[in-house]
TrEMBL record:
Keyword DNA-binding attached: yes
Domain HTH tetR-type span(s) in chain numbering: 27-71
Lineage: superkingdom: Archaea
Record key words, sorted: DNA-binding
Gene Ontology MF terms in the entry: DNA binding
Protein name (record): Transcriptional regulator, TetR family
């Protein structure tokens, strides 16, 4: 019979193994979208590229490709918004936080430009992904936690507005500018810093920020 310490170690190893396989599946999905386009990627392709079985993919992602894409979105949202490192956030400096987030979003888009363009093309051409997005529940616990994080900042005042609705409005506005820059190279017309200033200004207005210092 295994002792308590051995059982705990086995559980930790299982969790690490599960996390590694999930990341492998997600990374394979991203790579395949870049090279084949979202609509042409199959679960079999992902399994082969990720070195896992088709059954394991459906075990972790019952909804298939879009479930994987959704979890990738959550994973990078955590990194970009620093939601998993809230202890390092200065809740007295909302403008500074927003500026850093926007810079992170721009850098992520640059670092993954092929993936970003492929997803935009998929959204334009693939009716399936459009329907999946329409059916996506943005009012879930994950996005609720993100919206509550924003509302913790001093100076943020949205009155009786639904924080989730404000978060969605903010995401549409900022991602819209970033995607327009990706497609039309707005930085050739306006400097990168002026684009950041524009997005920061939009963000502060959407979140009703008032400087309380």
């Amino acid at each position: 019979m295994q002792d308590k310490k051995t059982v705990q170690e086995d559980r930790k190893n299982m969790k690490r193994d599960k996390k590694a396989k999930i990341i492998s599946i997600q990374d394979a999905m991203c790579m395949l979208i870049e090279t084949k386009g979202y609509e042409n990627v199959t679960i079999r392709d992902i399994a082969e590229a990720g070195g896992v079985s088709i059954g394991l993919i459906y075990k972790y992602f019952p909804g298939g490709k879009f479930d994987i894409l959704k979890e990738i979105s959550y994973r990078y949202t955590d990194e970009l918004l620093m939601t998993n490192k809230s202890g390092n956030i200065d809740f007295n400096d909302f403008p500074g936080y927003i500026r850093n987030v926007i810079k992170n979003m721009q850098q992520y888009t640059r670092d993954n430009i092929s993936l970003s363009k492929a997803l935009i093309i998929a959204a334009l051409l693939d009716d399936g992904i459009v329907e999946e997005i329409k059916n996506l529940d943005f009012k879930n616990e994950y996005y609720k936690a993100v919206s509550e994080l924003f509302c913790r900042f001093n100076g943020v005042e949205i009155g009786d507005k639904d924080p989730l609705e404000v978060l969605i409005d903010w995401g549409i506005a900022v991602k819209g500018v970033i995607q327009c820059d990706l497609i039309y190279s707005l930085s050739l017309i306006k400097s990168e810093e002026s684009l950041i200033d524009l997005m920061v200004d939009i963000s502060l207005r959407i979140w009703g920020y008032q400087n309380t210092s």
